[in-house]
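Support request from a user on the community tier.

User writes: "When I paste my structure tokens into the form, the page sometimes reloads and wipes my input. The last time it worked, I copied everything first. Here is what I submitted, just in case something in the input itself triggers the reload:"
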């Protein structure tokens, strides 16, 4: 079973995005010693394939020396494990030197861009767009693959068509992220995307995607359709992530996910102590994550989508209530809306009004004229 380790070299970030929930001014930068200890810890912790994602804060703040040492240290230290890497960055600090280091390991890059320049800079800070584009060009010129995530907020959702067209026009894959309530802000809900609006946005994007099939990829819709088709989650939000995802903070603290990094109550251990799974399982945070899993089994028992939703993201459910399990992920409303819509359309395509299966396989000339859910479900991700 592959697992995922998110390395958070720092929680610091040069940008000041309005709805940010994960950066921390003055955060230290991870030492190479901590990377070494992470490798030593993982040598005995478990021996499956592992993906490392460098995340933040802004991970490029760690600088080229850090990556020049860290990447071979991990790849060689865990050779034979099928090690893969990924990087999530705003790209401001990308340099040809860094890009060459990442290219050696063929590291795919995820970056953040909310839409056209005016809208993006209003949400993410003045000058953001140009700085990200500069880094994007360097990354691309050095052969790196970059995909952008667009955070939809209570504000930008009003401009959903402009955002979709912006991605379409640029020939970029669209991946969306709903703005979460920022636990570091005095007005946590100000930018957060309302779950009902989020559900409607997903249905809107499903329609736009089908309308523009072959011209753009909308990753969330691909994943949601795959979830329904295979009846299992295909992204972390829709699987039981606990026990298979870990994050290591700048000081070596181990958390259940990058979203909890910097919150002391969610520390499960430290890489410098090389904890076993049993050691981590004794921590409060580990127990809480597994209590959430049990809670979902009970609370979502009657839901038709439980197999491929699994109660959504535990962070969304338990962080805003200060670690108390009071309900499932508040975006449940959105998940139900889109999973229901995909299921209904799929059944309709499959059985049609006549109750035959012909339409689904393109045998009905009327239906074959425009792509349907089935065409997304059968796409290779
Ligand atoms: S806590 Fe949420 S974001 Fe983190 S791995 Fe789990 S589902 Fe994904
Ligand atoms: S859609 Fe809602 S009720 Fe259904 S499994 Fe997901 S979180 Fe639970």
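"...and here is what came back when it finally went through:"
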């Amino acid at each position: 079973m592959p697992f995922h380790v998110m390395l958070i070299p720092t929680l610091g970030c040069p940008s000041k995005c309005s709805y940010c929930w994960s950066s921390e001014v003055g955060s230290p930068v991870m030492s190479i010693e901590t990377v070494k200890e992470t490798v030593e810890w993982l040598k005995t912790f478990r021996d499956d394939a592992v993906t490392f994602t460098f995340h933040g804060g802004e991970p490029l703040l760690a600088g080229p020396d850090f990556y020049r040492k860290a990447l071979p240290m991990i790849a060689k230290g865990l050779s034979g494990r099928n090690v893969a890497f990924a990087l999530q960055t705003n790209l401001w600090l990308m340099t040809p030197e860094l890009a060459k280091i990442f290219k050696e390991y063929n590291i795919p890059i995820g970056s953040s861009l909310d839409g056209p320049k005016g809208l993006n800079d209003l949400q993410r800070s003045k000058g953001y767009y140009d700085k990200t584009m500069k880094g994007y060009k360097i990354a691309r010129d050095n052969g790196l693959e970059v995909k952008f995530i667009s955070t939809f907020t209570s504000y930008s959702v009003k401009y959903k068509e402009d955002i979709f067209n912006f991605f379409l026009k640029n020939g970029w894959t669209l991946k969306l992220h709903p703005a979460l309530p920022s636990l570091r802000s005095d007005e946590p809900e100000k930018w957060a995307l309302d779950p009902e609006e989020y559900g409607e946005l997903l249905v809107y994007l499903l329609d736009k995607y089908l309308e523009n099939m072959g011209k753009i990829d909308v990753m969330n819709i691909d994943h949601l359709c795959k979830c329904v088709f295979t009846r299992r989650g295909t992204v972390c939000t829709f699987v039981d992530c606990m026990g298979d995802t870990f994050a290591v903070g700048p000081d070596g603290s181990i958390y259940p996910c990058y979203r909890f990094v910097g919150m002391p109550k969610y520390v499960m251990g430290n890489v410098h102590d090389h904890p076993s799974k049993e050691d981590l399982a004794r921590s409060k945070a580990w127990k809480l994550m597994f209590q959430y899993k049990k809670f979902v089994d009970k609370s979502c028992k009657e839901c038709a989508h439980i197999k491929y939703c699994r109660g959504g993201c535990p962070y969304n459910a338990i962080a805003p209530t200060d670690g108390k399990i009071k309900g499932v992920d508040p975006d449940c409303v959105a998940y139900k809306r889109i999973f229901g819509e995909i299921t209904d359309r799929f059944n309709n395509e499959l059985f049609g009004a006549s109750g035959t299966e012909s339409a689904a396989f393109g045998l009905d000339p009327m239906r074959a004229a425009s792509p349907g859910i089935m065409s997304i479900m059968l796409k290779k991700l």
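Agent notes: The reload is a front-end session timeout and is unrelated to the input. The chain has 15 helices and nine strands. Residues 354-368 have pLDDT under 50 and may be disordered. Escalated to web team.
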